Amino acid sequence: MNNSSLMPRSMQGITLVSCGNRMFRVSTDSIPDKALPGISYISWTYNWYFYGSKGRMINKLKYETKTSIRAIPENDEIEIEGRKMNVEQAKLMIEQVVEKNKTLVRPSHFLSLPLFDPSVQHKVEKFQNDILSLKLPNIDPSIMIKPSSLHITIGMLNLYKQEDIEGAVKLLKTQANVLYSEVEDQDVITKLNEFLVPKFTIAGYMKNEDRPLKIHATIINTSHRRTEENGENKLYKPNYRKMERKPFSAVRILNNFSNIDFGISRIEEIHIAKIGVFNEQGRHRSEGKHKLP
């Protein structure tokens, strides 16, 4: 239904314009397009680089651009609202800050080969519970990866704008070869990596990292650790550049479970997955996927 049909006839073609403490009705046709109300959304990833100490930078940005800027973490978005020209100015200023700090920006997505096999997930969950039962120092449930989100990572992606996400999804669907694999069939996964990574790097969605692929599925990750602070359960956030983490000793784990076998999982899809964002099934949110035979 057209929104204009819901408006009172007297308000159709009219825009409310504030001036001081008063509101005036002005013909929409008489207002330059750039002065009309506008709204835009950008990736929450930007937040780390323009928020600033105690919010000083974002407050300065809102003041200079005369916009309203608020975070919507549940949607992984930052909302910018104001006049169209001011919204565009705010977006440009944010992008300039991020571009300046581009080498420090965390990856936002990754090329994922999800491991959906229920049997494998069940074995991983049992393994994690067995580890927790050992009550080892610096090991707690918060660093255990959810079995429903198990995956093999092909490469990390830097997709900070919606057009980047759409471009990467299109590239995946047009370039992904007819490949599938069992976890133990490393040659096929390696070939998939060798096929896709250069294409995503050339397209600017990946950083050029000259290091070999290590085929693995993470089941414990200390960067997920949560700590008790002021009675609240908060995510432990180490300095990203130094990657300082609270480590644990794996000696007893290796001694007790060195021969464990999680089974075989058929890989049926390749996804562009969002880091740190999960759906109702506990899987990483997928921006797009390519079906493997």
3D structure, described in words:
The protein has 293 residues and is α+β, with helices and mostly antiparallel strands. It folds into 3 domains: 1-31, no CATH class; 34-104, 2-Layer Sandwich (Ribosomal Protein S8, Chain: A, domain 1); 109-291, Cyclic Phosphodiesterase, Chain: A. Helix content is 29%, strand content 25%. It has 7 helices and 13 strands. Strand 4 and strand 5 form a beta hairpin. The longest helix is centred in the N-terminal third of the chain and has 17 residues, at 84-100. It is globular.
Put the structure in a nutshell:
The chain has 293 residues and is α+β, with helices and mostly antiparallel strands. 29% of the residues lie in helices and 25% in strands.
The radius of gyration computed from the alpha-carbon positions, rounded to a whole number of angstroms, is 24 Å
- Low-confidence region ranges: 1-10, 28-36, 177-184, 230-243
* Class based on secondary structure composition and strand pairing: alpha+beta
Bin the strand percentage.
Answer: 25-35%
Query: Biggest sheet, strands in spatial order?
Result: 7-6-12-13
Helical content (DSSP H or I, runs of 4+): 25-40%
Tell me the number of structural domains: 3
Mean pLDDT: 76
CATH architecture of the largest domain: Alpha-Beta Complex
Cα distance, first to last residue? Answer: 41 Å
Topology pattern, helix = H, strand = E: EEEHHEEHEHEHEHEEHEEE
The number of helices is: 7
How many individual β-strands?
A: 13
* CATH topology title of the largest domain: Cyclic Phosphodiesterase, Chain: A
Characterize the largest beta sheet: strand count, sense, and whether it forms a barrel.
Answer: 4 strands, antiparallel
Protein name: 3130_t:CDS:1
GO molecular function: RNA binding
Keywords: RNA-binding
Pfam families: AKAP7_NLS, KH_1
